[in-house]
């Protein structure tokens, strides 16, 4: 499966092309680090069936995780491709590659009840981003 490199993703963001960026890391990984790629929305990998139908078809969608070989991100991207999506890709090297490249990260509060970021959610927000 084709991946997007951190340099390509950074360029898309810098050009104002507004890719939908989805953080699939576990809540434990997010809590430990506290940072994310600017503009990323958090999604629960374990609940993928609950939000899969909310991913926009009219935008480039980039998934990232911290799994070896971006396995989780690739799995979700593959499911969307099987549903007919054509503009979905995992981030090569995941969040670790973004950090290693020295690109900007953001930080934010974590909602204690769900253990996920306050931006977790309904990916319906992707349609208006």
Report on this model:
With 129 residues, this protein is an alpha/beta fold. Helix content is 30%, strand content 16%. The strands form three sheets. A four-stranded parallel β-sheet has the order 3-1-4-5, with helices on one face. Strand 4 (61-64), helix 4 and strand 5 (88-90) form a beta-alpha-beta unit. The longest helix has 12 residues, at 71-82.
Assign the CATH topology: Oxidized Rhodanese, domain 1
Question: What order do the strands of the largest sheet run in, or round the barrel if closed?
Answer: 3-1-4-5
Largest sheet, described in full? Answer: 4 strands, parallel
- Mean of the pLDDT scores? 84
User: What is the CATH C level class, in words?
Assistant: Alpha Beta
- Structural class given helices, strands, pairing? alpha/beta
The end-to-end span amounts to: 26 Å
Following the backbone from N to C, one meets helices and strands in this order, namely HEHEEHEHEHEEE
Task: State the total count of DSSP E strands.
Answer: 8
Instruction: Return the domain count.
Output: 1
Helix content, binned percent? 25-40%
Beta fraction: 15-25%
Number of helices: 5
Net shape = globular
Radius of gyration: 13 Å
Determine the CATH superfamily: Rhodanese-like domain
Note poorly predicted spans: 109-122
Multimeric state:
single chain
CATH architecture: 3-Layer(aba) Sandwich
Short description:
The protein has one domain (about 5-125): Oxidized Rhodanese, domain 1.
């Amino acid at each position: 499966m084709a991946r997007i490199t951190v340099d390509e993703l950074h360029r898309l963001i810098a050009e104002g092309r507004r890719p939908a960026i989805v953080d699939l890391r576990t809540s434990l990984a997010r809590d430990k680090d506290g940072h994310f790629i600017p503009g990323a929305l958090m999604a629960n990998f374990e609940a993928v069936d609950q939000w899969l139908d909310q991913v926009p078809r009219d935008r480039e969608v980039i998934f990232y995780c911290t799994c070896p070989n971006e396995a989780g991100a690739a799995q979700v991207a593959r499911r969307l491709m099987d549903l007919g999506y054509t503009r979905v890709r995992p981030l090569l090297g995941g969040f670790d590659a973004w950090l290693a490249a020295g690109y900007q990260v953001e930080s934010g509060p974590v909602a204690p009840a769900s253990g996920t970021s306050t931006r977790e959610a309904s990916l319906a927000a992707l349609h208006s981003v």
